[in-house]
Amino acid sequence: MVTIRQIAEHARVSTATVSHVINSTSYVSPELRRRVLEAVRELGYQPSALARSLRTKQTKTVGIVIPDITNPFFADVVRGAEDMLLQEGYTLIIGNSDGEARKEEQYYRAFCSKQIDGLLMVVAPAEQAPEYLRNHNCDALPVVYLDRSYRGLRGDGVLADNRGGSYDAVCHLLAQGHRRVAIITGPPQLQNARMRLDGYKQALEQYQVEVEGVLVREGRFDVTSGYEQTKALLSLENRPTGLFVSNALMTMGSLRALLEAGVRCPEQIALVSFDDIFWFDLLRPSISAVVQPSYDLGAKAAELLLKRFSGHLKGAPCHKVLETKLIVRDSSKWRLEAPEEKVG
Fold it and tell me: 274: which DSSP letter?
């Protein structure tokens, strides 16, 4: 590796002058600065990230733990965080937990041991917050929880309006005349899954429709559970005419089950997804979906970290809720009867 001393000899200046030019710590005349920069370019000098981190006590790296890197939603989240961080010279390191608590803890401890500057986390399902997160020192290592969190954790958070988005989706189905509307939820341990179920129940209450336990099916936010729970719903003697699926991967499983069973959508079952995938608009029928601002979730979370780094954000945790948007497409446009006005 090229050293500062070699740069100084090549440029015929002192090592102190080279250091001042590289680190912008003091004024250097234009002529000397030109000679140093030419030497840097000609010799191919690369500053040591380790040396810089020892000097500044910053590694300029941020870790992010996500449950499923193959899920397009999380790919967008990562992209949003990465774009925001790169603008400020930070590198993002990704850990894929597969939604497993054990792997999540391994990545958490590995990132902390690498002395990252901040941490972004999409937590795995668990009955309660793990001890290492409950005891995490946010003053020493800022953390932002994305998309989901646990009650009582310290740390900033950025979530989508899960309850509001679900409420809009189910109200849309009810306004189309459906009164047997089923939901495939996510794991109840997850905050966002519970909020989406709350939105479903709130919409039914608004239309004075009773919640039927048999129409509430618990999935795992994956393709397989969407397929399994849709098959279970189709096997009911009095099956639903409307279906709200709580994430895009489960919606993919639902579509497979409907196709295998020869069930026409939306004529026999109207479908709305929470989460949108770009090719939902290309399918026939095209799929109605609640759009989450996935890119913005990552970008806003990174922005909160950067504010913590700079000292512009101090004190109590900051929580942001980003708006969702319902896009109505062909899969839910079938009207069973004249729509009724919601009550209240």
Answer: E
Are 269 and 251 in contact by the 8 Å Cβ rule? The answer is: no
* Those residues with Cβ within 8 angstroms of residue 8's Cβ, 6 or more apart along the chain or in another chain: 14, 15, 17, 18
The model's pTM: 0.78
| DSSP sequence for 148-197 | ---TT--SEEEEE-HHHHHHHHHHHHHHTT---EEEEE--TTSHHHHHHH
| pLDDT per residue as tens digits for the range 27-57 | 888 889 899 989 888 888 776 554 554 454 5
Q: Determine the Cα–Cα distance for residues 123 and 130; give it in Å rounded to an integer.
A: 10
CA distance 291 to 7: 54
Tokens 């939901």 found at? 183
Q: How far apart are CA 13 and CA 28, in angstroms?
A: 11
DSSP 44: T
Task: State how far the Cα of 201 lies from the Cα of 206, in Å rounded to an integer.
Answer: 9
Residues 110/116/122/128 CA torsion (nearest 10 deg): 60
Which residues of the chain have a pLDDT value below 50?
50, 53-54, 56, 338-341, 343-344
Phi and psi, residue 91, nearest 5°: -105, 140
Residue-wise pLDDT for 93-152, tens only, equals 999 999 899 999 999 999 988 889 999 999 988 878 888 898 888 888 999 999 988 777
Q: Which residues touch 207 (CB under 8 Å, ≥6 apart)?
A: 171, 174, 340, 342, 343
Angle at 258 between CA 253 and CA 260, to 5 degrees: 95
Q: How far apart are CA 274 and CA 221, in angstroms?
A: 11
Separation of alpha carbons 66 and 190, rounded Å? 14
Go through the chain and tell me how many residues it has.
344
**Ramachandran angles phi, psi of 203, nearest 5°:** -65, -45
- Between CA 11 and CA 36 the distance in angstroms is 5
What are the start-end ranges of the H helices in 14-100? 15-23, 30-43, 49-56, 72-87
Q: Is the peptide bond before 266 cis (omega within 30 degrees of 0)?
A: yes
pLDDT at 126: 82
